[in-house]
């Protein structure tokens, strides 16, 4: 999951590259052959007495964290779908899965696409071996669905940039060491032209992370405040003022990754704050992912639940489950297509994101149909300690996080289908003037 925000407007096409090229998606390999290769490697290397940090170093050296990356970038040059297959094979074997997180989902492929060789060397390897965790620093209180309207400021100060402003809805920021930061480096050009993308170190003076308590009672999301914090010049990715193109690439990787239900982007968490690096690998392998107890339901689980509750012959339940299976398979197909197409998948990643929303809401709706009033009971009285009630509450967020459903449809219509763009009152206007107009309108309304 990620910030509840969207990038929609004039700018570079999704996936446009600056300094590099997107990660290769490799050759299609038979799934059973790949699984056998993974199992053979695990039989030779898995040692439950290693520390997780040592184990993940072996995994990264073997190219298993991101097998779909080319070998020179720390992968094995496999097909894009291999990542899910590798992770499931690790888990079935009883080994700790490769490190997860938003760094793997977005930051690593982003830096491989737009970064310099130095940036790739410094930032990608610590993601692949789990040493460092990342978060996304995009959304702001005044710039959600209109991401290009952000006002967090980056001002050049010699060989560094000083960052001031606020971000919100930043998933896993409380566990992150680095962030994907989009800030405004020029207020005197139109809003899409004045943005820059930084690899930003969070553990420094001038940065405050505040968890946000959600309706579920958890605090996955955060708000982050910057007061003169530092981003190094060498950590500006894609060039000054090119942040909109870089950001669109980031969003493409995000939507491709979370579409149709998505992989467990945050599991197992890398970095020292995730709590895994120092654990014995055998103990860490026994830890259940948090998603296994809440939020994410599957069609197979709900079919079993219907049988257990004696509702599997109810025609309403059966129809609900049939639609859910159909949506899940369609969503999985779209997600695979988007991953295979990579940066050329204009519209496919967005369709996958819409499918994910439909699936998450469909699963919780089906659960409520099966359970009736019992499904609304919260922890500890509800079925499976309130799992279904929590999933129901959380599912409403799927229409917002990772980009709203409405703007996903705009992107599909405008960029994939070539339909006319929505009118834009601030097109071509320096962003400083846009802010001034907004202030004047607000002050006029307050009188």
Structural features, described:
It contains 13 helices and 8 strands. It has 447 residues and is an alpha+beta fold. The protein has a domain at 290-416: Butyryl-CoA Dehydrogenase, subunit A, domain 3. The strands form 2 sheets. It has a 4-stranded mixed sheet with strand order 1-4-5-8. Strands 2-3-7-6 form a 4-stranded antiparallel sheet, with no helix packed on it.
Low-confidence stretches: 1-28, 260-264
Sheet with most strands:
4 strands, mixed
CATH class of the domain at 290-416: Mainly Alpha
Radius of gyration from the CA trace? Answer: 22 Å
Task: Please tell me the overall pLDDT.
Answer: 86
**Count of DSSP strands:** 8
Output the keywords.
447 residues, alpha+beta, Butyryl-CoA Dehydrogenase, subunit A, domain 3, four-stranded mixed β-sheet, four-stranded antiparallel β-sheet, 40% helix, globular, disordered N terminus
What is shown here, in short?
40% of the residues lie in helices and 11% in strands.
Topology, element by element:
Layout: H1 31-45, H2 52-61, H3 82-93, H4 102-114, H5 117-128, E1 134-137, E2 153-157, E3 160-167, E4 178-184, E5 195-201, E6 207-211, E7 222-232, E8 236-237, H6 243-258, H7 281-285, H8 299-308, H9 315-341, H10 348-371, H11 387-395, H12 405-416, H13 431-446
Parallel strand pairs: 1-4
Antiparallel strand pairs: 2-3, 3-7, 4-5, 5-8, 6-7
Helix pairs in contact: 1-3, 4-5, 4-6, 6-9, 6-10, 8-9, 8-10, 9-10, 10-11, 10-12
């Amino acid at each position: 999951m990620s910030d509840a925000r969207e990038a929609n407007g004039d700018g570079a096409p999704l996936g446009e590259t600056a300094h590099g090229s997107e990660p290769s998606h490799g050759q299609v390999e038979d799934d059973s052959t790949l699984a056998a290769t993974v199992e053979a490697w695990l039989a030779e290397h898995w040692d439950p007495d290693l520390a997780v940090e040592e184990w993940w170093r072996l995994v990264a050296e073997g190219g298993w964290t991101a097998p779909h990356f080319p070998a020179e970038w720390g992968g094995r040059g496999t097909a894009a779908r291999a990542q899910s297959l590798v992770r499931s094979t690790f888990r079935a074997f009883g080994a700790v899965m490769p490190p997860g997180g938003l760094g793997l989902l977005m930051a690593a492929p982003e830096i491989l696409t737009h970064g310099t060789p130095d940036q790739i060397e410094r930032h990608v390897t610590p993601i692949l071996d789990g040493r460092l965790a990342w978060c996304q620093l995009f959304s702001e209180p005044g710039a959600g669905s209109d991401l290009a309207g952000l006002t967090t400021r980056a001002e050049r100060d010699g060989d560094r940039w000083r960052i001031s402003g606020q971000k919100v809805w930043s998933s896993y920021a409380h566990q992150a060491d680095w962030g994907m930061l989009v800030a405004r480096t020029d207020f005197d050009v139109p809003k899409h032209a004045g943005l820059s993308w930084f690899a930003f170190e969070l553990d420094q003076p001038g940065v405050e992370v505040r968890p946000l308590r959600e309706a579920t009672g958890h605090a996955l999301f955060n708000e982050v405040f910057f007061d003169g914090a530092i981003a190094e010049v060498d950590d500006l990715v894609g060039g000054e003022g090119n942040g909109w193109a870089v950001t669109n690439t980031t969003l493409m990787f995000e939507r491709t990754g979370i579409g149709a239900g998505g992989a467990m982007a945050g599991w197992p968490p890398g970095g020292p704050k995730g709590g895994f690096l120092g654990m014995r690998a055998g103990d860490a392998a026994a830890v259940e992912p948090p998603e296994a107890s809440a939020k994410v339901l599957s069609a197979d689980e709900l079919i079993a639940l219907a049988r257990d509750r004696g509702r599997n012959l109810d025609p309403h339940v059966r129809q609900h489950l049939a639609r859910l299976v159909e949506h899940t398979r369609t969503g999985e197909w779209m997600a695979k297509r988007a991953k295979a197409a990579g940066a050329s998948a204009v519209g496919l990643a967005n369709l996958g994101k819409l499918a994910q929303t439909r699936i998450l809401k469909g699963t919780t709706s089906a659960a409520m149909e099966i359970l009736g009033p019992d499904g609304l009971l919260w922890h500890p009285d509800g079925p499976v300690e309130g799992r279904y009630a929590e999933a129901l509450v959380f599912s409403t967020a799927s229409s917002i996080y990772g980009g709203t459903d409405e703007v996903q449809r705009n992107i599909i219509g405008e960029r994939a289908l070539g339909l006319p763009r929505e009118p834009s009152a601030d097109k071509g206007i320096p962003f400083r003037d846009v802010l001034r107009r907004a202030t004047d309108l607000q002050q006029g309304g307050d009188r």
